[in-house]
Amino acid sequence: MLTESRAGSVAAASLVRDFTELGVRPGTVLHVQASLRALGPVPGGAATVVEALLEALGERGTLVAYTATPENSATSRIHRAATAGLSPAEVDDYHARMPRFDPAATPCSPTMGVLSEAIRTHPDALRSRHPQTSWAAVGPQARTITEHHPLTSHLGPESPLGRLYDLDARVLMLGVPMDRFTAFHLADQRMPDVPQREYRCVGTDGWITFKAPDLDDLHFGGLGAEVLASADGVTTAHIGTAECRLVPVREAVDLAERILRRTRA
């Protein structure tokens, strides 16, 4: 358990120690999914957590965040909720006022959390150019992870998420449950006859339409519970007031694939 500084807040040095004790090692590629509210007060907020993670990873490690912008897509659940009840003319006006996606400047969705935004805005961060499902990374593997992100592979094997699998990354679930484990999308897309759907986003040059796999995460809760029940490489700890897990991407995705094939047989 972390030691605490004033008023029950989590000290930065304790964060480094506890990330290391959880299993974060120098040279690791680490995708972090975090709820800072679950972690508790940290002097310096998200910036302090980012620096603690980078210190634990060392110069050879790479820190990664999902920096998606679903508000930028006319076909996302978030966008549909925002425009529900508007007249066709009001929807057209809403679309006309939506800013173009700029990888260097467009903030990630608030639903991604403040830590993802802190990683995106780190001075050394690189970001992929997908207008709906971008990723940001800091470290020596950042370019490898972010430079190739086809429109048709939101969260598939050709995306930065696929690179995390290839690089044997770990995922730090910091106060975030497994029903939000983003890498399960890789297992979904290994299933036969993955349905395709049309997406419409505001890209860097204006509106674009493309077809890609239909993404759904409503089954991730049950899938995560089954994966945790049989995984060997997952480590757990409480950091601050957050329940945390360090999850190997390859093991979790391969287990999830076997579970999905069994249940869908």
TrEMBL record:
GO terms for molecular function: N-acetyltransferase activity. Keywords: Acyltransferase, Transferase. SUPFAM superfamilies: TTHA0583/YokD-like (SSF110710). It comes from Streptomyces kaniharaensis. This is AAC(3) family N-acetyltransferase. Belongs to the antibiotic N-acetyltransferase family. The lineage of its organism: Bacteria, Bacillati, Actinomycetota, Actinomycetes, Kitasatosporales. Transmembrane segments: none annotated. It comes from the Bacteria. GO terms for biological process: response to antibiotic. Coiled coil: none annotated.
